[in-house]
Amino acid sequence: MSIQSKSISVEKASQSKIDQIDFDNLAFGSVFTDHMLVCDFKNGAWELPKIVPYQPISLDPSSKIFHYGQSIFEGMKAYKDKNEDIFLFRPLDNHKRFNISAKRLCIPEIPEDYFMEGLKTLLKLDGEFIPKNEGSSLYIRPFMFATGKGFHASPADEYKFIIACAPSGAYFAGKVKVLIEQTYSRSANGGVGFAKAGGNYAGQFYPTQLAVAKGYNQVIWTDDTEHEYIEEAGAMNIFIRINDTLITGPTSDRILDGITRKSILEIAKDHGINVEVRKITVTEVVQAAKEGTLKEMFGAGTAAVISPISAFGFKDTDYELPELNAPFADKIKKAITDIQYNKSDDTYGWRYKVTK
Ligand code: PLP
Ligand code: COI
Asked: Which of 78, 127, 129, 277 to pair with 341, CA 20 to 30 A apart?
């Protein structure tokens, strides 16, 4: 069954929370809009999505999400331009990746029109919550998890798909200091690293806490066998500039195929930057830092946009990155955010207009 916006029922919140939002001091993902989209999978099919006031959900203690972690999510943003029109960035790519994650976690895929019509209807209803200030946006969190009951370790028979939104500011307050991980792994060959599975993030918290206790903000994940190949930076893909070449690792079943990452690859090429997608070793990066050819490192992702790295730690030594006058990170960040906020032509066709 295909759906249109008019097949989505809307129960409006009795009172708006908009006056409680301090748009000039937004943290990341900690205050929420008035409504959320909810859609249940029961008896082998998705029911019609509905929009309801943002509220807690009640689940049976035996719901499989609590025991076996069948849970996936996406991260997207909605932007407002100076005319207050609403835009998304490559949303169909998020939908595709959501279903790739769903398949790997044995969760039923959600049809594109449920995802897109549901999201657009929600954004039009809660459009007032999309910040107008530079650098802020509405962070959108589509997620899906097993509500089906029972302790049997097998896929659930019922699921819930929800989209919740949070007006948000920057993910990181400033530059990021990272530790190159030499003990723990985020993902493994044949695992679920390429999926946005909740458990991938739970597994990162402990090693990240250890790094934070040593004064770092984030972990740089390396491959699970040798800890020699640079893979990701926390919840971001990673870019490394040696001399004037911008390098990022190839995606694999251990690495998330980031939408920001693939957009940066195109933008950088179009700005005449020499780009290489290839495996990059810790040895090479440490050597480049020692020789002074390591110019920049930055993380890239929807939440973090482009987050420059100030220094990295490896085996008890910290290596500082130079302060550059015109870093690639700034140039690329401007190009991508200008497209997102409708400040420049979008020759790539990435901007998706939702309208008011
Ligand atoms: N890598 C991981 C592990 C992430 O969680 C994210 C965030 O979504 C990214 C990379 C960046 O992906 P995207 O640019 O699609 O947000
Ligand atoms: C995103 O960038 O949207 C993410 O999903 C990262 C998240 C863990 C905050």
From this structure: 277
